[in-house]
Amino acid sequence: MRTKKIIKRTLLSILLLLIVFFVYLVVPRVSNPNPKYQTRLTYGKPLPQEIRNVLTPKTKPSRTRSIVILKNEKIIYEYGHTDKIMNTASIRKSILGLLYGIAVDKGLIDIHKTLNELKIDEIVPLTKQEKTATIQDLLMFKSGIFLPSQGEHDSQITDRPKRESHAPGTYFFSNNFDANALGTIFTQETKMSIGSFMEKYLAKPIGLQDFSENNVIVGAPWFLPKKPSKHKQYYLFLSTRDLARIGAMVANEGVWNGKQIVSETWIRKSITSHSNLKENHINYGRYDGFGYQWWIDSNTETVWSDGYGERFLMINPKQNLVLTEQNFTGNSLLSTGLWLKNRNMDSGIKNLIKAHEMIVQQK
């Protein structure tokens, strides 16, 4: 009798653990919020059918894709679930760059301070030369610090220069150390989390529809092990319509709906190239310049932010035009794991570029 009870308790315990594990697998890490401060985007003149035909997938995409195009702050094209929040991947870096601009304008951050002055170090101690890097160097990806970091991939690993091979401020390298350390410094200097600062000074003023401070997660979202570092990777979840709205603000020199959100000076510095990437030993594709966490394509006079998993924010300041696409790469341990397993890079980037060209050529 006692043996049966033990077996029953054991089976119940196993069942309970399985249920907990299943919930852990499927529950979304971030939920779609419904903020009180949200405002609706308005609609402008729709794109001609010939341009819409370029953008609209001819067959059902193999994963969730959404596209929003804004002209003069108004929607002229949208496709898919534009309200669905998604992991923006490296687009997070450009958004943090904007938050730095707001913090600088408020006198909370001095971008000329060195890591030594800020008391920023790493588990593998930084050298005297590396500690001379400034916040500005990190914003330009010119820290000269070439160490393993959380969230890095591909060329960030294979093409990483040797330590101290380039002095701070002299060499561009797309480096997750710089991006993650910027997150650490931002929190340290503003004494606010990235999420709460973004909600107060960016999301509320421009009326983001699908944001709360909980959309920003610092550290591993699903408690999976990360590379040891003092500077945790941060994750930013945004809907495509909110991402497009932020892009429209950048396109209009920091203004949204007639209100200056980020100073014109900061926007201009951010989207002005501080590096000639054509002289770099790494091929950065269509990009030939880099500002403060923004990529530059001088050929099309556009400013870009993009993220792993094929997601893009394309800004044409002269046309006050924004094209953005996001692809869903998971919002739970299970959905993210399935995407990572398949590595489905279903992208419409060529169509986005073609549509931009056609829009610009319109009379």
Automatic annotation (TrEMBL):
This is Beta-lactamase. It comes from the Bacteria. InterPro entries: Beta-lactam-related (IPR001466), Beta-lactam/transpept-like (IPR012338), Diverse_Enzym_Activities (IPR050789). Residues 68-323 form the Beta-lactamase-related domain.
